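User: Structure tokens for this complex, please. No commentary.
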Amino acid sequence: MMKAALARRTVLLAGSIAATILCSYGISMAEPDLLVIAGGVEGSNDWESGSYRLDSGTLVLKSSPATISTDLRSVDASNTPGDVVDRAFPERTGWIFPSSSDTNTSIMQGFDTAARGGRVVTPIPSFRFLAETFGNMTDGSALTAMVLESVDGSSAGARGFILDFDLGAIFGLNRIRFYPRPSKQRDFIKGYEVRLNDGTSDMIVGGAKIYETIGSETDNAEIDVDIRFETQFVRHIRLRSLSPAGFEIAEIEVYTEGFVPKALYVSDIFDFGEKALLGNLRSIGEKLSDVERSRALIRTRTGDDPNPTQYTRRGQQPSGRVIQRGSSFDPVPIDALWKKAGDVSDTRLAALVEDQLDNADLDGRDVLLQFDRLPFADRQAIVLDQAAYAALGGGEKTDIRDDLTDWSPWSPAYPLDSVVEQGQLRDPQAGVPVLSPTPRRYFQFKIEFSSDIFDAATGVGAVAVDVISPIFADSLIAEVFPRQADVGVETDFTYAVLVKNRTPTQRFDQFKVQTPIRTESVGAVAVLDADGSARWEADFTNISLADQDLPAEDTLGSCIDDGQGGQRCFRILESKADGFVVELPGEISEDNTLLRIDFKTSVLRVGTRFGAQALNTVEPLFGQPVAAGNAFDFGQEDIDAPPGSLDAGNLFVEVPVVKGLLVNVRAVPPVLTPNGDTSNDVAQITYDITNIARPTDIQIKIFDLSGRIVRSARLTQSSGRFSWPWDGLDQSNMLVPPGNYIFSVALNAGTGEETGVGVVSVAY
Amino acid sequence: MKVRELGLTCLALFLLVSAAVDAQSYGARLGVQRGGSVSFEPTGSGVMFGALDPTVRRWYVPQELVAEYQWRQWEYSNYARQPYQRYVNTNREGDYFYDFFGDYVSRGWLIYDWRHDQPQQGGSSIFKGDNFNKFFSNLTVSGDSQGQYAYAITVGNSIRTTLTPMTFSKPRFNGVQIDFAADKYAATVIASRISDPREGVTPTPETRTNTTSLIGGRATVQVGDFVTLGGTLIDARNSNAALDMFDGNLIAGNLTSGQSGTPVSAIAVVLSDDSPDDGEGGAALFRHDIKITEKDFETGLETVWRLEQVVRPGTTWPTVIGGFEREGFTSADGEEKIILNYDFTDPAYTGPDLTSIIDVEFEYLLANDYRIQMWSNNQSKGQAPLTPTTILADDIVLFTVERAEGNIQDISNVSVVRFDYGLPTANLIGGFTLEGTDILGFDIYGEWDRNVRYSQYPNAARFATNQGHEISSRHADAAILTVSRQEYPYFGFAELYSIEDDYSTSAFLSNDTGDFNYDAPTTGLFEFVDDNDDQDSQSDWSRKGDSRDANVFPGWDENNDFTSDFNQNDTDGRPNDIPDYDEPFLRHNVDRPEFLFGIDLNNNNWIDRFEDDDQPDYPYEADRKGFNVFGGFHASPEMRVFGGRLDEEMFSDNRHNRSTYGLFTLDKDYSGVGRLRVFNMLRKVEDTIPNDRLPPTPFLTAPLQLPVIDFLPAPDTWINTAWIGLDYTAVQNFRVINKLKYEIFNQSEGEDALGARTPNRDIEGTPLESESNFFGLINKVEYDLKIGSLSILPRFKSELLNQGGFREDEDDREHWMLIETLMIQLPLLRQSTITTGIELAQFYDRFLDEGQLIDDKLSETTGDFNSVNFAFQLSNRSQYLGYLLTTQLGFRVGRTNTESVEQIEPGVFDTRTEGRTETTSFITIYAGVE
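Assistant:
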């Protein structure tokens, strides 16, 4: 029953695929377990809130508006901060692209809305009285104007008057036009200079923008000034009057070409209703024009509460920090994360805030710690939210920032592998694993669009993520011991996993340990109950895994009835270069159950992490990763921390930083007898590559004693244990004469070439 | 201890030298007579013989003015016969001055005084009297010599000072320079309060408590007849005059009040990708640890805490933001950053109180192409610990601590990196030089320098005593060597250089409160080596006390009049922003700079000697190592043939410039016929090092120019540049001038597996054209016909330019311009000349096709124009009040017809010519001195 409840759902988070795709996947969509969240698939996608479909099943999906902190004092609750994402791109229904320009429409209308963030100011204080009329230049009406003593060209001291336009985002501009009202055509600007700045940090020196002049006329006779120029990226426009005569501007029009170079889409926050395991992320994308000149980078984050933004107010206790103001040193109060007592409805919690958290007599750090350790529900009830923050006085507000306690930071951009063909959108094996921590209840993604040239852009048609629920355990705390080893030396390790689980419906029956190279052997395996008694045990000590991929089974250990008339025992399901999988006799669901696995392997690289995943037979594709922490007390050398506490270092095995990148270079056997008797017909040139994290060139050469190369091979490998078989043949497939031969293994690393040599003998 | 001993020794030597040179010159007029002898020393009041009368009447001792006018206190003042004489202001002859030892110095004026008293608030004072400016124009020179020995003490606001090109070179050094020279020895000492050296007059001494001072020097000794060895040492250090001088460190300096007055409450370490453009292989962090040293100031006991000892169980500290998990490490690739936020006020931190921390050392296991930067609340005053929002803010101040060498991306360089947190207190440069002349026929110059940057951990509790701030340092080296030999007809030259990327000749400057603005180069930095590409008297960048040189055109001012030779009629009084090659009449003589020939070894498509950048003027760019070697021979006295190889790499990135080149030069005068010049340079180039530059200033009042990005036009390229000049002057008063330049960039492209062309790409990834050409041809004919005193000058010029774009999306450039000019000069009377001229010009833009524009129905200018200009001028040259006045009056009328394609009627487009008439009338007077 419980196995059947485990279900994978592909969550098409946003976006659209064309109607043909809908048809192609009509069968998939009909599957009851498939949860689709995308109006596009339904033919009505607009990438906005609520545009998803709820399916039957235990997983309930909700969505709430996106909020991201745009600076330290404000948030943006729209899906498209800056409002330069196009959700109605021609012939791409349901796709999103960076905004492209309508060359016949000025971008100045509405440029100063909150969504776009543009503004116009004058840096000249004596002209700031005109500020309230600046909006007349961009209101789309030629009947209203910004007027600077427009008296038929008479002197108004207008020389040097400057208007600075911040477009709010970078656009590809090619035309600027400005003119007076039709009824005041004599009051056109008599001399002007128009300068541009692209808004990048390269074009700002010492805080001053470097402008490029694209139009200058000291004796202008044109009523309608229309400056056309080669398209260039622009964010700031400076218009300066070069004439003392008064003038007016009814409208300033700015025309653009191509796509905006930067745009941002931020999804709603997805609430899976309970902790869910995230599998692969996939997206559909399309590049227009030069494929190398535009990109759409997807990032994700996951969290435990519904709000990834943290609002803070000035606390009552000193933080320990001080600010020097002149010769005095002012203490800085803590940033309080909770509401004021008067804003908390629960009387118990209100009292807690008043008596403890806002008690000025207590230590600021203790108060913060106390808040952190509140039960989750209590913390959520008093945490400062957007509404409470907005109601604070100006002096009470402190920073708005990302919540890095209950939420992960934004992940790095997903690699290109995450972009799939439309036909693969529902293929759970396509895409790449979600980079944000999992399992988590809340999920959000964003897409950063960027283009280097005007006509290039990348659009996104859909984003999909596999969601598995229920998860296998609330948390799996794991550690490996010992956490120090020598490079390339076979070492006995023990892997311990403490299962923290409050819900018996969450369970697993397989476990995968990731190792840096193929495991030599697995030793004792045991599942211990919370009281320390062994529930199941097995011992694989005498079964070597070094040379086989086939599973090994220990039928001598604990076995249980499988309910079908047979027995189910511990079994090594898989042993590969990246780890091994142990199948357990039964499912583990009980809280505080401990799984111990002894194994033998070598560590070749600094920072080797022994990751692991709990697996379930029903859901073989995705595993629940373990979290590093204190699972078991291994004795004095194991740092004494509370069981179940987290410690990222507990899954790392350190090795000394050695200079050599090639170790254990040898021939096995050292003498080969290529006579076809299947005994020692081949010598394996084996070697361990240590600190190399990406495939690099390896060249193996075999020399005779005169220095002549008799055989060579070129390979591409990274850290690991490798062997290359030599069968005694030379380059022309002729058997070499008996004798001693010297072999070299050369590795071409970033730090230079490194070579290991050895001797192999041929006898026959 | 060694540093302190060295400091004391230096001070003692300085005092000895000071005493030795103390040659006094007493005045003859003054003095105090004591019992018949005259003393000039201040000895205090004595017993006056004449005052020893036992009278009740009070004795008023005659003071100087009284003695001067024979006035006695009790006498009746009657001026009937002897008119009253007004007082003479004693300041007209100055004050009396005594030296350090109490010896009388002089009567006169204090014009300059710089002294440093410690411990004393405001202990650093500089006085520059009004007379320092008025009498001496802010420069005094004192000196002495005897036999072969000579020395000079130069004090000034703008001293041209160079020790070596790698260590100290400024066109305007504001400070003191003491030079010594003997036949085989030479030495220089320089000193300045660089944080506030004072530019103008200081009515009273300008006192400062927190300062940044510079002291340095150089000494050379000649060994044998051919070799000169030299040593250079320069140190710019912070100091706080309120503290005992010897309690700090004489070399590493002291923390100022602003730096150490506030406890460090948070430190952030930011790891990023040192080569973000490639988007991969950035900082790889395997593990991190911290070593916090705490001191109990009562017992003196020091305790060291490691990371696991300062983190509250069940919590995480420091907060780690950013980066992503790879196989066993956290990586920051491209624009990604890993921020480790060590907030000592975080509840998760249980280590020592921040006021008792005296040192924080970080120990990171890092690999790949990392960059380590640090921040603390003492760098950015008042800021909270870093968050992802603040780290991306523009105003954040980060110190770069270390950068990985090269651009390794496979973690093979994994290593433990240790670094301390500290605020900068001193920048030291020391080095040696070797100069050899004709050693086995070779001329040699070699220099090796080490730059050491000191920083100290600020502990507020230690500020009062200034003792024991933990000092840390990081160093970078620079070395250059050039060897040349000439053995006619053969010659050879080799240069080797290596300047590490963090070699720095910049020092942070304190303000009086001891605060620093670490992120404001224009006000917060002092440069040992200035950027002065045009080698004039003003540095090219803006630094404290130095305004930016607005007129930078290196190599374009061969007549040294501080005006670009391509805009010669641009002056401050009468600005002109039209280049001469576009200006009527002048454009016959002046050709566009594109027609010049020169060496471009950094392959940024700009001749090296015309390059302006914003970097210190080291002989070689920083962050480079490599060599260049060439040899050749004179095939004839006028003809040279070169062959050479350049191999250059960057320290901080995996970029290189490898060029193999050959050069041919011929410059031959054929007497009575003309001159032939032929230059050709062929290069095979693999250049991936960008060398951005600043464009030449187009006119004197030009604002800051946009930098020109080197888009790397030659990643794997054959380049040939040919230039031929032929001047024909065989016929008197008749000249034919011809210039031809042809340059070709031919990209060595590859093929992919399917045989398709894989184009080379520029730095932004844009495909480069397989071939880019520049073709330029100028033909000029001039004739000077003399008929009596009348001169008739017909002139003709043809300029043909065809330039293909380097990038596939870049437009070509092609035009042909014809200019016909006729000028007539008629002398009038004795000192007057009438000049009149007419110029016809036709410009054909051969890239924009008007037919195509019409077909495409595009309203656009076609680029074509023609113009006619007529000018008349009366010029008079007269002597007036010792000046040669040149008075000119006249007018110019010009009409320019510009062609464009426009919509004539709905849907119908055609060419249209629009004319514009310009007139200028003028009367101008120049006062000449020659």
